[in-house]
Amino acid sequence: MRLGKLLLYGLTTSLLLAQTEPPPFDVSTIDRSANPCVDFYQYACGTWMAQNPIPPDQARWSRFDALSERNQLVLKGILEKAAAGGAGRTPLEQKIGDYYATCLDEKAIDAQGLAPLQPELDRIAGIRDRNTFTEELARLHRLGGGGLFSFTSSADQKNSSQMIAAIYQGGLTLPDRDYYLKTDAKSVKLREHYQAHVEKVFGLLGYQPAEAAAKAKVVVDLETALARASLDRVSLRDPTKRYHKYTRHELESLAPELNWDKYFDAVGAPRFENLNVSVPPFLRELDTLLHFRPVEEWKAYLTWHLVHAQSDLLPAAFREAAFEFFDRELRGLREMRPRWKQCVAAVDGDLGEALGQKFVERTFGAEGKQRMLTMVAALRQALAKDIRQLPWMTPATKERALAKLSAMTEKIGYPDKWRDYGALPVVRGKALANSFAANEFQKARSLRKIGKDTDPAEWHMTPPTVNAYYSPLENNINFPAGILQPPFFDRNADDAVNFGGIGAVIGHEMTHGFDDQGRKYDARGNVQDWWTPDDTREFEKRAQCLVEEYSGFTAVGDVKLNGKLTLGENTADNGGVRVAYMALLAYLAGRAEDKIAGFTPEQRFFLGYAQIWCQNTAEAQARLRAVTDPHSPGRYRVNGVVSNMPEFRRAFGCGEGQPMVRPDACRVW
């Protein structure tokens, strides 16, 4: 079984990318001065990191980001052709082309000033009482702004075949509740700069300095109060803590200050009787705030959230102010992304399956799905073997785990049925109106699902996305076409490298079905405890080992990783690599495999895995990710995993006491 390349570029794209596409396994990126048994990440990625500094318009530069950039070039070519116009354009090409061309036209956006936004600003200014506030909040939620909370549809966690209405905590602008609550000097300074930014934006809207300062203080005060009421990220990882089924009457008793019937009608929801209130204490505190804080303060809050949500489509002063705080200070960028990149991302976000359809037509070979299915089958067999051999799990729970694995389905590349954008109007020259229309289209589409059957064929990532995911409510693994390329999977790589790349990704997503979150869902995607008490205790004991291991790693400076936040991803990394390695050994059984570039198949497997995580990260971005990202940095996705694997120790001949040989190695799966 030779694993073939999934991506077939057209001639123009091949010429465009010829100098940017790296080989999937390049020994020249290895740092020969490093000892693989001391720091395997440095050994596998050191030269790559030295040769690939962070571009000024990026906060992090990794193999993921390099692939995403290549995909963006493909999308840019598609959009430029569609934007050129002509009588031969299809309706789909008209929408993506006109959306892109209008987004690109910064001169027109600047010339229009605040005129396109003014009707919405006037609506907020006209809020008089509870009813008009409710109506305007619902309108802003349709248009993609407003804050306070999120109202949408979701699969019912106790009956995953049905869609249910759902309310989630929200209303914050900074990346996490902790940004509002931490009292260290860096956090205090950042909040001061954030308030100054909000003040600047109110000044750009025409308010005098004293009034702009007062409104900014109100916004930060209200968001801080919402942050105090918000559940932290670690707690939100537990599905039992974010599922609370209420009737509409019970919701009205929980938070009576908002006219919920008026809100649901105005936002466009169908009639329903029950909903999930993800975090009831949050709504209770929001109700208190709505009761005691005057309407003028809420008008300032809504104005800020409207303007912030659309800053990319407002005049240059707004765009530049947003860049200075959110991109430069908060994320660590040195330069604003070129406008074409921003607009490619905007089209992908708002018309993702329209653009993705063209991406797949141009790039994804017909052979791709079958070859991925072959890999998935190999990994499924390996994980089943791993489950059967677990020494700590009882036979009854093993049987249920195997049943869940057997029921797990996969989606490869792109949807079987593309989303219909016929009802979404896109008008050339109206950038803000197009964004509002796209948001309203998506909101209406989401709310129409309430009370209907779940669609397991629906995708939650667009085809060009360089990522993959496991859906616990659907019990399926999903691999967009965007990631099915080098360095993850390529015909020019030998099988060992491909198993270390896309094989580890497949194993990672499968293992998510059995991590600290996924294990709480049954084979049908319902939250149900299918574990014996003894097996639960054994799992938690092994999971705690990973929590403690990764909590000891330094993210940047004085910031440690949060082992509880990253537990699910760390569990999936460790389990996924082990399962992929088992699949490779099963494939190699009885075959004579020579060394390549001096490396055995086992060594090439681990190098193939490590090299997909090579990255450089700006300090500000590293700090942000340590608080918000459930994934560990690349260095620890590599070293944390291999130091737990005796297979790695044998492959590289590492001895006792070396850093890549943990004396208290962790293993869950």
Topology:
Elements: H1 11-17, H2 40-51, E1 60-62, H3 63-83, H4 91-104, H5 106-112, H6 118-125, H7 130-143, E2 149-156, E3 159-169, H8 178-181, H9 185-204, H10 209-229, H11 233-236, E4 245-247, H12 248-254, H13 260-267, E5 274-277, H14 280-292, H15 295-309, H16 316-329, H17 339-350, H18 352-363, H19 368-389, H20 395-407, E6 409-413, H21 431-447, E7 469-471, E8 476-480, H22 495-512, H23 533-551, E9 554-556, E10 559-560, H24 567-588, H25 601-611, E11 615-617, H26 619-628, H27 634-642, H28 646-652
Parallel strand pairs: 3-5, 6-8
Antiparallel strand pairs: 1-11, 2-3, 4-5, 7-8, 9-10
Helix pairs in contact: 3-4, 3-17, 4-17, 6-15, 7-13, 7-15, 9-10, 9-16, 10-14, 10-15, 17-18, 19-20, 19-22, 19-24, 22-24, 22-25, 24-27
Task: Describe the protein's architecture and organization.
Among the domains are: about 150-295, Neutral endopeptidase, domain 2 (Orthogonal Bundle), CATH 1.10.1380.10; about 370-415 and about 460-650, Collagenase (Catalytic Domain), CATH 3.40.390.10. The longest helix is centred in the middle third of the chain and has 22 residues, at about 370-390. Strand 2 and strand 3 (about 160-170) form a beta hairpin. It is globular. It has helices spanning about 10-15, 40-50, 65-85, 90-105, 105-110, 120-125, 130-145, 180, 185-205, 210-230, 235, 250-255, 260-265, 280-290, 295-310, 315-330, 340-350, 350-365, 370-390, 395-405, 430-445, 495-510, 535-550, 565-590, 600-610, 620-630, 635-640, 645-650; strands at about 60, 150-155, 160-170, 245, 275, 410-415, 470, 475-480, 555, 560, 615. Helix 3 crosses helix 4 (about 90-105). The strands form four sheets. It has a four-stranded mixed β-sheet with strand order 2-3-5-4. It has a three-stranded mixed β-sheet with strand order 6-8-7, with helices on one face. Strands 1-11 form a two-stranded antiparallel ribbon. The protein is an alpha+beta fold and about 675 residues long. The model is unreliable at about 1-20 (pLDDT under 50).
